[in-house]
């Protein structure tokens, strides 16, 4: 037993440490400082080990504290008229029952279980029992401080707080015992990530009882809650016996972990499948063009689902919103003045809106996964003139895709400005439309340019470039900050146009100079 | 025509994968490239195909005693895991490829003629490539590489995923194509190498060396190759 515990710990710790080292290696500047033999470096390993142990300890307590803070007390704050301790126990009781089914640890197919029991062929029985015991201890120890702290704050008596952790684990043991018995009888293994429909309905009803009943002013009397919690303890104790003598851990875990083998290297595989699903099978798609235009037209038509359909949806939503605002003007004329003033100063806000709706990432991702990943292995595709020709074609396409919603938004804003009382300077209307179009042009250009200059994906379609992540992060931050800026339409619009022009010229120069070298597969 | 590699080097961090590759390949021959796992066969191909930059050395084509750097059209590269643009049908991919390379493809034929050559069934020709099997994708990749008639054809483990019939067809195809070009064929299957290749070249210690067949029989020759590979410090 002791040995099993030690091995399963060191196994978990090893891959946690390796994940920490791996993530360090992904950070742009730090990765240069790290040695090549990263996984051999003792000091680094020690550092990662410390982090790993700290994380294990924190996870015992932190998760529970957050749970109490948000789910129990946070939820309880909604019902001010009811006794605090009653609400606390009421919500905790129902959530405990839910938790004993959705957070079992016994029926959660995890990677460490797969490594230990399938790959390393450890004894399933011992491994399961040892780890389950540890998980239950973690529940009791982790709950104790939080339940005392938050419970006493809500006027729950101390003696109740002290036995609540035992009740919670008792309920978990009970649910585990039930599921084990079910496996023995019907040979269907319970998987907490793939619950059956009737259980879903049951849990949703319980969730409704946890938060819905108090909203209706009904809670379980405190004595009833306390008694229920008290009963969980002996019930749990009885189930310990069942769990100890259960003979089929090996078979059960084999079934539980059957899907893991396929899932192991899947994030990339899944990306690929997801992207392949985006290809429309419509037999009527064809093209009369030649060469790269032919390739591009087929690409756009077969990816209509993710490219144009998303754009169409955005356009419909925008038209509805604009219509709604215009209707509001009609119904409540008094808001016109306010909106009018806002529009005249809110143009920078639209940088963030245009950022949010631009299809740049989706487009370049589909381009790579479904097209460039394969074609870049062919020499003809890597020739500078091919790369630049295709860049021009793609820039045109992504600009078209982004420009439609931009025009609708720009025109809509001009319309709203007019309907809300208008402006003295008619140039404002034109500027609204042009500036928003420029923003969309900028985002189209921006995403395609960084894609061509950094080509961030590797052949397994994972995002590998740290620089790419940094640039997209900075872009997001910059756009977010723009929400805070208030400037007049004419001034900001003029700045936008100038910026967009300079950026476009610079981006074109960079792409023409460097893309023939940088646009390739990462090995 | 000769393809000459001079003192090619490639390191990954501190690991010297290609130390000093120095070799001259001759037209009309199929070279079997053997090496242990991790010996750097794919790295060598990637360097020649300019997918990764070499750290030193050079390679060039020599025709009529004139040297020139290989341009992309000179090289065809068939990867072990076939990659084809999934959103195109087999026919569309072929049409696109012929369009783009119309200058270099002499006497282009109808697409169906090419499919017939590769024995790709009629009902498959207008299916999306994403629905092709592994072997079929491999055929497509081979097909477009053959149409372009490159001077150097690099094949990285190309027959491993094909069924026996397909593999035989592919072998005779490669034999029929070897005239006028240099074919370099990497494989782990020694019998395949002995059967198909005119020369056996070993990649070991980051260097290329030819294994002379002379008068030895097949069995001795195999022993000789294995002995040479065993020395490659992986034991």
Description:
The complex is a heterodimer of chains A (523) and B (235). Chain A has helices at 2-25, 28-33, 42-76, 84-102, 111-119, 124-153, 158-186, 197-215, 222-245, 249-256, 260-263, 266-277, 291-302, 308-331, 336-345, 349-357, 360-375, 384-419, 427-454, 466-482, 489-518. By secondary structure, chain A is mostly helical. Chain A folds into two domains: 2-7 and 63-258, no CATH class; 294-518, no CATH class. In chain A, helix 19 runs parallel beside helix 21. The radius of gyration of chain A is 30 Å and the shape is globular. The two termini of chain A are 45 Å apart. By secondary structure, chain B is an alpha/beta fold. Chain B has one domain (2-230): Rossmann fold (3-Layer(aba) Sandwich), CATH 3.40.50.300. Helices cover 32% and strands 27% of the residues of chain B. Chain B contains seven helices and ten strands. Chain B has helices at residues 41-48, 90-100, 111-118, 134-147, 164-177, 190-196, 218-230; strands at 2-12, 15-26, 30-34, 56-63, 66-68, 75-78, 152-156, 182-186, 199-204, 207-211. Chain B has a six-stranded mixed β-sheet with strand order 6-7-8-3-9-10, with helices on both faces. In chain B, strands 2-1-4-5 form a four-stranded antiparallel β-sheet, with helices on one face. The longest helix of chain B is centred in the middle third of the chain and has 14 residues, at 134-147. Chain B is globular and about 50 Å long. The model of chain B has no long low-confidence stretch (mean pLDDT 86). The interface between A and B is medium-sized, with 29 and 33 residues.
